[in-house]
Amino acid sequence: MKKHLALLLALCMVLSLALGACGSKTEPAAQPSTPSTPSTTPSTPAQPATTPTEPAKTGSDEKVLTIGTYMAIVTLVPWKTTSDGDGYVIRQVYQTLLDMDENSNFLGNLAESWEASEDGLQWTFHIRKDCYWQRGNELFGDELVPVTAHDVKYSYEKYMDPDFGSVRYSDLVGTIDHIECPDDYTVVFYTKDIDVLFEYRMYQSYIICEKMIEANWDFENHPLGSGAYKFVEHKTDTHVILERNEDFFVRPALDRIVYKIITDKSVSAIALQNKEVDISLAILATEVANIAKYDYLRLASGGTGSYRWVGFRCDWSFFQDKELRKALRRAIDWDGAIAALFANDAGVELARRAYSCIPYERPGGDIDDSAKAMWESYDPAAAQARLDELGWVKGSDGIRAKDGQKLSFTLQVGNNDSARERLAVIIASSFQAIGVDCTAQTAEWGTHTTDIKEGNVEMYILGGYSSLDGGLRMMKTNATTHSPNCGYSNPVIDEKLNQAWKTTDYDARSAILRECAAIFAGDAAHLGGYFEYTQMGINTRVTDFDHASVYRPLCTATRNVGVE
Amino acid sequence: MWTYILRRILQAIPTLLVISFLIFSLLYLTPGDPIELIMGTEDEQISPEQRAIVEREWGLDKPFLVRYFNFIFNAARGDLGTSYVTSKPVFSSIMERYPATLRLAGSAMLLALLISLPLGITAALKHNSIIDSLATALATIGVSLPKFWFGLVLIITLSLKLHWLPTTATVNDMSQGFWPFFKAVIMPASSLALGMAATQTRMIRSSMLDVLNQDYVRYARSKGLKERSVIYGHALKNALIPVITVIGGEVGGMMGGAVVTESIFSWPGIGRLAVNSISKRDYPTIQGITLVMCISYMIVNLLIDIIYAWVDPRIRLDK
Amino acid sequence: MSDNNKVNEKDRVMDEIGLEALPVTNYWQDVIRLFTKNRIAVIGLIMMIIIVVLCAGAPLFTSHDPITEMNFSELLFRPGQGGHILGTDDLGRDIWTRLLYGGRNSLVTGIAVTLISAAVGIAIGLVAGYFGGTVEALLMRFTDIMLSFPFLIIAIAIMAVLGPSQRNVILALAIVSWPRFTRLTRGQVLQIKQLEYIESASVAGFKKGRIMFNHILPNCLGPLIIQATLSVGGAILSAASLSYLGLGADAAAPDWGVMLSQGRNYLQLAPHLTTIPGIAISLTVLSMNWIGDGLRDAFDPKMRK
């Protein structure tokens, strides 16, 4: 008798687990936006109010902005960083000559104004006279030392020294011939050739000074620059704290910035809902609706779409056949797939289908119908018919083959983005449905990049190349690396791209790029792709945060982010 | 006893040599290019000149064996090298995180024992009762659902719905007193403890049942000894061997960090360091972590063996 | 030489005596009788059989296809909605179908990993515990080494060298899970080999192998069976983490562990994505547990009086 009871109970346990979890599904809807009152926010009573680890939330006059970042801090050394996560911090502590807005326009930062010579080979920057190196540290003490043109020259020359180990080395050496300082606040760059992206490079490199290098300053543990916020503390894998630089030419609106490192994006979204952070940097599609229902939160997109695409290895065996690539393209329901991957109840557009490989917001990305016309409509039946026509006929095992060779390949995707992984599943499943033996394989990131580089994958999903020169590098023949376009090469495009590179006029350059993108799309080097608009969740108490990016300085001449 | 411990310490030296060689070779076989992964971005490729410089700086241009012997030579002097990624000494990077890992592991273990000991013992004494099935059900669920599930469910209920606890750990030690630490550690520790408690409960129950059927326990009972003293004086101690082994394995495992739990609860432990350095192919850090892991395992296992001898004096260590 | 012969001779005699004393058929009949008498164990067995039949005969129980039937207009249906018994997942696939087909991979992985790692681990643990001394030191330090390897590195290396496939998933998981069995077995052996009957067996001149497998092993089966039954669940979950790392053969193929981990972002939005495969794994582990308990009791010499 007892055994029966025991059995029943054990089963009940398992079932209750199921019901408990399923039942909670209706809860979020039934319990609409009831934002927690300040008194119920988790505050730790035993904690002293002044502790830097707990941002002041209630009552205190201190203006603290807490940013939840999912990216670990890799390095805080300004010439070694490649990660956005580092950039969020470094951009506030150091200055660059120029800043860039959401429409790819350049704004002054350390430079007040700048101009290029007629021939485009000489760039002159006039530097602000009211920028100083941060005080209150062992290096500068209380002395107010201005940032001069010599510091700019010194920084760039250091970055162009191969032994210094800057990650920007090859970019800079490739374009800068030499640098001169006619006076303390003017710096002139002489370039080797016309470089339409010169301003972009001036946005990428941070300014340091000779005194730091000579003193063998510990950049990793004590970042020190001339930016609006001073470094206070970095607790590994926990947080970074910055405080206001009182010497900055405008008064930064925040007393403190706290970067909380919250690796898990779902948890970061919960922390935002709980008011533990003011900004959460990447809201997953599945969390968008949760954020949207609170009246004290808003969503904002980063502005520029990030390209994610499925590419053929165009120089591999049967993928050399453009017609096969085009036939396969018809089997994918791109609009449906993108809608499914980024579905959310709040109706926020998280991704847009890509017809061209240049982001809509970048020069040449504002496609006309020519690029769109290169795409056949989704029609799996037509794809099947076309494959039959091309000689790829279904065998007895249901898999298409031609000349004894099976239409069988692997689609590899890196394990860093769940949307891409799901896209791989959609594509492989769609192919399997029309007799194409495609295996979707998730690969560890390091392995994935090596495999692509060495040409070990037939089809892959990658992202990136959405920066100003992304499209250019994407479409160009590249013998040394497989990464951007995987063996695609078209002399017509190469010629046009060289021309675009030398065209300083924005509209003319855009037109050439647009033309290239249309040819590229027509050649079906990519199976397709989308532009992702990463959403940030922001508490409405954050002010002056119109362009949702913390990768830009939060306090400049034109922008000063604060909190209410 | 002391000679035994000394011998085990001496055994550690060849073990560490073997594991360092194995991890060195394994990393050599593992695809992934540290220079590309650390210096490059998804957008940016690294130039050949730059690559040559970095290779020289990191010593990657030297042959495999030269690199290995350099590593051994330096490690023998207590220098595990510097991380490719941060240029910080590997040893200090590991030690920066190790205490947090130990605190989480300790709390989780304590919690697991608090659940499993009473539950396991009761389940054994009340064989086939409700408590017994409850213990089985707990164990089943404990091993069948992944840690991220427990972690996220805890955060959703305790932080988002009930506002009892903060979502992320702001402290990981007692520097601000017990309560802040408790609030920070209770959720990650619980999500780790559930899985451990599952195995422990089952183990305790089973070996208690075994022991209770042994002749000497029957004899003790028949002699009219009090039930309590039979159970806690004789049975429990003898039932502990498999339980200790299981606990030891789990403690050892947690020394390497609990990656999933650490990521979900933003706990600054060694697991996240390990995953990050593996994804960047930061060889010195991976080697360092492996060595530290190996040492931790050997210490834990030595302790277990000593506890064996203490629990069951017939087990002679020196033999 | 002559010494050896003598021992063998003695052994042969003992073997005969042993066989006579306890006929093999009787022993197994006994085990089966004891097992079937245990109701919970039988229920566990029936549950297991049902699960296996459902998974093996998947096409009989569903009309959908687990991979190619995506329907973007039927995303995240709740159980019962739109004719889908257990609803649909984030790509509009029928969850019931994926559960049935997924069980094939998951059961094979879970059980194979457990069997291989248990066999290897128990053998090494028996030898180490029984022989002691240098043999033990060598074997146990070897397990220390295996335990301290970062799992991720092993997985990535195996994937790179051998290529992704279910067989290699099983291999990778077995490589990392056998040391647990070794340590557990050795701990038990250390305790049991002190018991009088083992000592008397060796004094009587029984072969070492025989003592190990016939006398020591049955007495330490209890904890091992528990570890084994619980590790089935662990293996299914770990296989999912491997497929996330790229060791899984096909990301589109259904698998319980993968279903669970892919549903992680839907905990609030559509919790059935994680709970359903979770329950499937739970029920499997539960039935294994019950079978395991029954087996333990059936094999345990002390329970057989």
Overall pLDDT level of chain C: 83
What composes the largest sheet of chain A? 7 strands, mixed
Which CATH class of the largest domain in chain A? Alpha Beta
Q: Specify Rg of chain A, calculated over alpha carbons.
A: 27 Å
CATH superfamily of the largest domain in chain A: Dipeptide-binding Protein, Domain 3
Average residue-wise pLDDT of chain A: 84
What is the correct CATH architecture of the largest domain in chain C?
Answer: Orthogonal Bundle
- CATH fold title of the largest domain in chain C: MetI-like fold
What is the β-strand count of chain C?
0
Going by CATH, what is the homologous superfamily of the largest domain in chain C?
Answer: MetI-like
Put simply, the count of helices of chain A is 18
Q: Which geometry of chain A do the CA atoms define?
A: globular
Give the topology string of chain C: H per helix, E per strand. Answer: HHHHHHHHHHHHH
Strand order in the sheet with the most strands of chain A: 8-9-10-1-11-22-12
How many domain modules of chain A? Answer: 3
- What is the CATH topology descriptor of the largest domain in chain A? Dipeptide-binding Protein, domain 3
Gyration radius of chain C, rounded? 23 Å
Most extensive chain contact? A-B, 74 and 75 residues
User: What structural category arises from helix and sheet content of chain A?
Assistant: alpha+beta
CATH class of the largest domain in chain C: Mainly Alpha
Protein traits:
heterotrimer, A: 564 residues, alpha+beta, D-Maltodextrin-Binding Protein, domain 2, Dipeptide-binding Protein, domain 3, 7-stranded mixed β-sheet, 6-stranded mixed β-sheet, 18 helices, 24 strands, B: 319 residues, mainly alpha, MetI-like fold
Describe the structure.
The complex is a heterotrimer of chains A (564), B (319) and C (305). Chain A folds into three domains: 63-91 and 227-302 and 534-564, Periplasmic binding protein-like II (D-Maltodextrin-Binding Protein, domain 2), CATH 3.40.190.10; 95-212, Dipeptide-binding Protein, Domain 1 (Dipeptide-binding Protein, domain 1); 305-381 and 416-430 and 441-532, Dipeptide-binding Protein, domain 3 (Roll), CATH 3.10.105. Chain A contains 18 helices and 24 strands. Chain A is globular and about 80 Å long. Chain A starts with a helix and ends with a strand. Chain B has two domains: 32-77, no CATH class; 93-311, MetI-like fold, CATH 1.10.3720.10. Chain B has helices at residues 2-29, 34-39, 48-58, 64-76, 90-125, 130-144, 147-161, 178-212, 215-222, 227-255, 259-264, 270-280, 283-311. In chain B, helix 7 (147-161) crosses helix 8 (178-212). The radius of gyration of chain B is 24 Å and the shape is globular. Chain B starts with a helix and ends in an 8-residue tail after the last helix. With 305 residues, chain C is mainly alpha-helical. The chains are: A alpha+beta (564), B mainly alpha (319), C mainly alpha (305). At the A-C interface, helix 1, helix 9, helix 11, helix 14 and strand 19 of A face helix 3, helix 7, helix 11 and helix 13 of C.
